Amino acid sequence: MNKFFLLLCSFLMSWNITFSQEEVPSFYSTDHITAINITFKQSNWRTLLDSLALKGDGMLFGSVSIDGQTYKNVGVRYVVDRTYRVDKMRNPLHIKLNFINKNQNHQGYKSVRLSHSKRDPSMVREVMGYEIARQYMPAPKANYAKVMVNGAYYGLLVNVQDVDGVFLEEYGASTENTFIECVPDIDKRAQAGCKNKIFGNLEYEDGVQCYLDNFELLSEDGWDDLIELSRILAEEPEKIESVLDVDKTLWMHAFNNVVVNLSSYAGNYSRNFYFYQNSQGQFVPVMTNLNLAFGSYKNVGDGSDLGLRDLQLLDPLLHRQNKAKPLISKLLQNKDYEKIYLSHVYQIIYDHFVDGEYEQRAKELQQLISNDYFEDQNSFYDQSEFLKSMTTTIGKRSLIPGVKELMEKRARYLKKHPKLAIIPPSVTQSNVLGRAELSNKQVETFRVTAQVAQRPKRVTLYYRFAKNQPYQSMFMEDDGKHNDEEANDNLFGAEVDPEGLYTKMEYYIVAENPAALSYNPPSYMFAPYKTSLKELNK
User: Fold this and answer.
1) Please, is 336 exposed, middle or buried when counting C-beta atoms within 10 Å of its C-beta (0-12, 13-18, 19+)?
2) Is the separation of the CB atoms in 177 and 277 below 8 Å?
């Protein structure tokens, strides 16, 4: 009996060990700190990385271990941006896992981007910022990584998903479509015949040479698509939806404004974003470099840097009349688009900032990383600055507002702003009518109803039958004739006939009054309602 018991225990222990070894954390999980260990054969790897950064586009050979899984023949280089410094102990890093072996990846990811958060003493701007953004629009994942190089602690960095082919596939986009990064050379004068210092503004210029210093083409072709986007913005803005996903662009503008992310299209250089083309031929924006969000960067392109109070009271309709920012001004001059934009601003502030949810999340993130942060001898900020960074402005030359110091008053200001103080109508209940009880008659159409509060003037149903389709729309009626019971009872109805071609449907509802609108569900962008004829006929 004892022998059997010992054998059983041995088996269970070995099974448990095997299971634990195979249980690798998700690469971008914010529940843990990713362990990244880089090994170079050369002891002078810093000098070699500096040389590559200054003289070429190559990468230094090495191997890397990610949460215990080792990958050989990877490429490593410094990310050369305005924060890069020669012979610094801590620069941002780019690791290509598939540098030699094109199929090598970690959980499907082939590239690793490590941000050093030079302008963020709190270390929460990127991780928390991307968490918020991903709820409303395509945006990278991000978490923290403890990085070792040749056995020495390099630093606690932010592990930000690369905006590459893997990212595009996650959002259902093709790598064969136009894919462009906005990377303006802010120190270079424009070529002859081109406008000077327009950066990534998308002001229209008839000639590809005028775009080369401000954008980088990442697909095989697509310059003509970008030029056509800027032309339509300038000359035919009423056709903008043919070349731009307007809703996702308005989400980007709303996010940038609410969290005062000015190292973006909203700032003086109109930078730090990508455009990819979706299956409908529309450009979709993707933000990057949120290290400078929450007021860390302060220039809107009109005069000197803004002070703390100016950042707290930043106009939610910033650039609405600015001809040099057509991606904002041309959209917000359309009354319908302005209403959608303001609804997105409203959604973001009430989801995250009015009740202080962001502060609690920031505290959780700081608690997660505090021990590793305090051990980091290469950090740009000391322990005291990290601890005070939520409530106090840090720095003497580059004044970086405390996240709470900025956002507490900003949320209060936006909440009371005349354009945002209006309560939008809300869908309190939505339903799709199924087969009547005891009836043998099969349901062949989708009969959607919505109970709406706060005096709606218009309710619209948006629907599609497959993910790769664009949404179609129809008005919902409150006339007692559309499965909506009695007329004028604020129960709206609409019927979608799939004409025998489809059996499933995704949908969301927009409720409007003259000044505001709301979406149901709020997460309509990525989690619309779903129904099927099979479910309705149970």
Assistant:
1) exposed
2) yes
Angle at 33 between CA 31 and CA 38, to 5 degrees: 150
Cis upstream peptide for 521 (omega within 30°): yes
DSSP-derived letter for residue 351 is: I
Would you call 109 helix, strand, or coil by DSSP?
strand
The tens-digit pLDDT sequence of the chain (538 residues) is 444 444 434 443 433 333 334 578 999 999 999 999 999 999 999 999 999 998 878 999 999 999 999 999 999 999 988 778 887 788 999 999 999 999 999 999 999 999 999 999 999 999 999 999 999 999 999 999 999 999 999 999 999 999 999 999 999 999 899 999 999 998 889 999 999 999 999 999 999 999 999 999 999 999 999 999 999 999 999 999 999 999 999 999 999 999 999 999 999 999 999 999 999 999 999 999 999 999 999 999 988 999 999 999 999 999 999 999 999 999 999 999 999 999 999 999 999 999 999 999 999 999 999 999 999 999 999 999 999 999 999 998 889 999 999 999 999 999 999 999 999 999 999 999 999 988 889 999 999 999 999 999 999 999 999 998 999 999 999 999 999 999 999 999 999 999 999 999 999 999 999 999 999 999 999 999 999 999 999 9
Amino acid in position 18? T
Beta strands in 411-470 (DSSP E): 426-432, 446-453, 458-464
**Beta-carbon contacts of residue 524 (< 8 Å; ≥ 6 apart):** 462, 508
Domain boundaries along the sequence of the chain: 24-164, 166-353, 357-416, 426-536
What region, left, alpha or beta, does residue 289 occupy, with left being phi > 0 and alpha being psi -120 to 50 degrees? left
| Separation between Cα atoms, residue 273 and residue 294, nearest integer Å | 17
Q: Please report, for the chain, how many H helices and E strands are present, in that order.
A: 13, 19
- Strand, coil or helix: 283: strand
Name the CATH superfamily, with its identifier, for domain 426-536: Immunoglobulins (2.60.40.10)
Task: For residue 247, give both structure tokens.
Answer: 């809703």
